[in-house]
Structure to design on (180 residues):
């Protein structure tokens, strides 16, 4: 919960939220493409490094929330399938698409944080930010759909209890109990 609250505190402005909803999956796609280039065939099934990374994230997300973890797994496996299609194109094409997606997605994130006037979590805690971002995007989609609202009420109480918002604290987000 601390990780989500820390991430949520720096992602409140609607423009920044929208940019992240597009940018995070775009970055993931850019990462998954080259990961599909390395894999093994087991029977009739091809398993790539993309699958291994997705399963690693899924395992971690299971410790946070099983429902959201399964939602992430479904979305990520569909994304990996599309990444494998793109990755199967000539390297000049697939490599260019991967690079544009990766760097373009990150550029969009920084633009979103400029609008919010908050420091990107990525700058402060790159590993934790990259772990939290895909999960948080799944959570954000459920919020936008009006589902599992109790989680967002809990997050808001946690952020308010710390008493800091991105606008008041220069974008640091919750500090005392935050793991981000």
């Amino acid at each position: 919960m601390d990780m989500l609250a820390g991430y949520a505190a720096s992602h409140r402005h609607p423009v920044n939220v929208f940019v992240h909803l597009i940018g995070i999956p775009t970055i993931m796609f850019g990462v998954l493409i080259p990961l599909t280039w390395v894999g093994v065939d087991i029977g009739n099934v091809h398993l790539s490094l993309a699958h291994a990374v997705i399963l690693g994230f899924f395992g971690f997300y299971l410790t946070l929330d099983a429902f959201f973890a399964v939602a992430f797994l479904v979305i990520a496996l569909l994304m990996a399938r599309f990444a494998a299609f793109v990755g199967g194109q000539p390297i000049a094409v697939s490599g260019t698409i991967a690079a544009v997606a990766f760097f373009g997605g990150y550029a969009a994130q920084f633009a979103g944080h400029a609008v919010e006037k908050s420091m990107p979590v990525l700058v402060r805690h790159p590993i934790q930010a990259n772990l939290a971002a895909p999960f948080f995007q799944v959570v954000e989609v459920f919020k936008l759909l009006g589902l599992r609202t109790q989680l967002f009420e809990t997050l808001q109480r946690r952020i308010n209890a710390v008493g800091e918002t991105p606008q008041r604290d220069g974008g640091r987000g919750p500090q005392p109990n935050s793991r981000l």
The longest strand covers residues 39-42.
